[in-house]
Structures
1.
Amino acid sequence: MPSAPSQQSDPQPWWPYLHGVAAIGLFLRLVVALGSDQINHPDEIFQYLEQAHRMVFGYGYIPWEYRFGLRSLIIPIALSLPLRLLQVLQLDRPDIYIPLIKTILCVISISLIYGLYSLGRQTVSESVGRMAAIIASFWHELVVFAHKPTPECLATYLLIGALVCLVNRPQWHHSRWHLSSWTAVGLGVMAAGVVALRLQYAPAVLVLGLAMVILWRSRPAQMALVIATFGLTLMGVGYVDYLTWGIWFGSYYNNYLYNQTYGISSLFGRVFFSTISVR
């Protein structure tokens, strides 16, 4: 009976205290999220949470960006799923669904701890990976913003995940759908997600693609799988805009049209940190 394809084993097991560090990081994030209602930017409420609430409960404030189709509904749709579930269970009260949304986002943010640990140990050393995990667990900005449903935060988690997939340097086996194939799929999906959530991060994804060409140059089938999943994911994003705004990639087109061509955003003025006085 032929033997199974050889696996490229990790020479060193994962840090046994990593889960404990992640648990502490999650605890700190939940303390901040559930113990305060601090708002760093109105967008986190009106552009995302409010729109998810409006989808489920049928009422809510509609910012001008959603009246003219300047924003994708991907994040509001994702946030509406737990709200819909609570509505079905007749638990749709603010004292239940607000903590639940915050908790879900905090749990998602923990992926940054695992991702940076894996990234550090694979690119430098085990000790660097451990230090990265500890810093990600306790760093104040990562703790404070963990429960924010902003595209900057969510795109950052995906970008780190894509980097982890990149440095895994998977092996291709034609005899089966190997775990490394899922690594390539993950890289393509997460890289596309970064661009979809935050178009300003596209240069980082371009660098990611160039690094893939260098690191995976001997794995053309693997790179083809990444490119295919990247393209299919972006097409899915464009299709969401088609269903919601009536045009493929409509939110990106309208954003450029209204803000860059028409200059609508400049009508609201600009505030610079140097002009803000703290009292």
Note: Residues 15-149 form one domain.
2.
Amino acid sequence: MEDIYRSIEKPAEGIFRDRNSRFLAFGFPVRTVEEINEILAGIRKKYHDARHHCYAYRLGSDKDVFRMNDDGEPSGTAGKPIFGQLLSFDLTNTLVIVVRYFGGTLLGTSGLKNAYRSASADMLAHASLVTKYVEEGFRIRFPYDRLNAVMKILKEENLIPVQPDYNTLCSMNIIVRKSHSGILTTRLSGVPGLAYESIQIAD
């Protein structure tokens, strides 16, 4: 798995016109299929009078979850060129939807491919692209008298405790870049009485 991945920072929009057909492109940062389904339902409701709502997405830092949908357009003329833009920009955790308003003139397969690709490219040209690290989460527990030792390690590793609980038995969550997690756990293992376990975090 790569140590970093690229996504879009926030929702973005683009547009392409060809022979009176309008192609409205929408990009969203996403993390789950459930989230994608909710967004798709919202777009279909908002643009209920459009002829097609085509889309493509890719999920996960390892980029192995993806889907393309032509929504009634000829096979391979919509979802695939949209997905091609995700590949060109090497994006993941990203959903792109292109809504088509038919202008009365058939564009042909090459025209459709160009339109869906161009609408997606216009949206991405307006999007803020960000590079993110693949991260790993840990829940650590330790006696209060080891707090200084733990905080010293976290400070040296430039990490900030999440949901800290400073009682007789302290606990906190730590989010660390995955490639650095081995160094962190080795250092923490040197603190007497400290225990840690992995926790699930979203990409």
Note: The longest strand covers residues 21-29.
3.
Amino acid sequence: MFARIRDRFDRFKRSEDGAVAVEFALLAPLLFAMLFGIVCLGYFMALSHSIQGLATSTARASLAGITTEERQAFAESHLAQASARYPLLDTSAIISTIAVSEGAASSITVTVNYALAGSMLDLATGFLNLDLTSLETGAYLAY
């Protein structure tokens, strides 16, 4: 009787059934956290690039205007079409400022502020206790 119990125990000790499942259960949270971090970092970089591209392309779009009012109108029209040109951006989250100056040094300054509320980055900053509520960038172009 003890020999049978000992044989079963030895067979159980040598068996590796379920070892992979246990290893996966131990490593899965770490792997999924790393995957979430990689996706969030990529999303952050894509948003930053899109916002910078929007600011610079808005400044360049104003070159077509001759007067200050035309330049302002071209820039505002370009910003209104932001979601068509940059599909990652939500136009309701964009707050922009356009300052056109005339004179000896004519120029345009475009500032774009993108609110992160409700985005994937907002969720990530909640997990990581980051103080990241918006992304802001600008572009300056002298005529």
Note: The first strand starts at residue 94 and ends at 101.
